[in-house]
Write a structure and sequence with these properties.
single chain; mainly alpha
């Protein structure tokens, strides 16, 4: 029963970190929490690194593009897509 609760707490912390991948404070707290529960965080740290690199690349692409071609909701749409990809990859890894 305790193992189930630890796994569930880690899953919640992982989702919180993913949905806030651009916040160093939140992701760091989630990683520390998962580590304190005795679980491996290497895949989470890798996913967060890649997500931030994708977001940075996308931001640079937008900044280089003409302001006429920018869509107002691009940042939130891109963030949602990145989060969805990371969450899906966690499900594939756990299979």
């Amino acid at each position: 029963m305790i193992v189930h609760r630890i796994v569930k707490a880690c899953r919640v912390a992982r989702h919180l970190a993913v949905h806030n991948f651009q916040s160093l404070e939140i992701t760091s707290a989630c990683i520390v929490f998962i580590t304190l529960l005795g679980q491996d965080t290497s895949s989470l740290r890798l996913h967060l690194l890649v997500a931030n690199q994708i977001a940075e690349h996308s931001t640079n692409q937008i900044a280089g593009a003409s302001s006429i071609h920018q869509s107002p909701g691009y940042d939130s749409a891109m963030t949602a897509k990145i989060c969805k990809c990371i969450i899906l990859s966690f499900h594939v890894i756990s299979l």
